[in-house]
Design goal:
Layout: H1 6-15, H2 17-34, H3 44-57, E1 61-65, H4 71-83, E2 87-92, H5 96-100, H6 103-106, E3 110-114, E4 131-134, H7 140-150, E5 159-162, H8 176-186, E6 191-192, H9 200-213, E7 228-231
């Protein structure tokens, strides 16, 4: 796949602008109608980058670890729907997501499994994974588990994103962010983050692209975007 860079993302915003506009409108309406029943976690940039990468990559199998109330799940499923192909396998220890994801998005393209995947890793279709999305336990122990057990099990060059890494210029010490950033550094793997605390130039450039395309009205009011995007070795 092409490197995940700001320039590449800018081209994807232009390429998929019409479909993205429709998804943004739908997500905004859903959030307005559901209110507190939907606790959205991803910032607009994180959600849109995820959607755009999935549109461009056209994965057949996406694995999502951590769903919470389903905001990221809906963005992922929207991309698979618009691609006309692909299946999402989601995992979490709570099932709030089941009450939120609309059937028109989930039918035929989503499998949700409730439980601790550390206890049942065999339930993850790791060897078939085309995109890996992680937003679950943010402790160092869980990060060590997935870097040592899950990363080696998925195919090489799998595009991956991990949430809650850069809440500041540096990851929180002794947490998930510190573990994954060190893991990447030890292997000389580059990553992209839209975190305004870590890399404000990323969102500044993408904001100009979105304004030119008329995509600058917020879906949700937030500028907290600590996710990282990278490709596994």
């Amino acid at each position: 796949m092409e490197s995940i860079t700001v320039d590449h993302l800018s081209t994807l915003y232009v390429k998929y602008q019409d479909d993205l506009r429709a998804v943004r409108d739908a997500q905004r309406a859903f959030l307005r109608d559901r209110g507190r029943a939907m606790k959205a976690q991803l910032d607009d940039y994180e959600a849109e980058i995820t959607y755009l990468l999935l549109r461009d990559l056209r994965p057949e199998v996406v694995v999502e670890i951590g769903t919470f109330y389903g905001w990221s799940t809906m963005w992922i499923l929207s991309a698979l729907r618009d691609n006309g192909t692909g299946h999402l396998h989601s995992f979490d220890i709570v099932d709030n997501v089941v009450r939120n994801v609309p059937r028109e998005l989930s039918a035929g393209r989503w499998t949700f499994t409730r439980g601790d995947i550390q206890q049942h890793p065999e339930k993850i279709p790791a060897e078939k994974t085309d995109y890996l999305f992680i937003d679950a336990d943010h402790g160092a122990r869980f990060a060590r588990w997935y870097t040592e057990n899950l990363f080696p099990a998925v195919p090489p060059r799998t595009p991956t994103s991990v949430h809650d890494v850069f809440h500041g210029r540096r990851p929180k010490p002794f947490g998930e962010g510190s573990v994954i950033v060190k893991w990447l550094a030890d292997r000389n793997i580059d990553f992209l983050t839209p975190s305004t605390a870590k890399a404000p130039q990323v969102t500044e450039q993408l904001a100009l692209v979105k304004k030119d395309l008329g995509l600058d009205e917020p879906v949700r009011d937030s500028d907290h975007n600590p996710m990282i995007f990278f490709t596994l070795p």
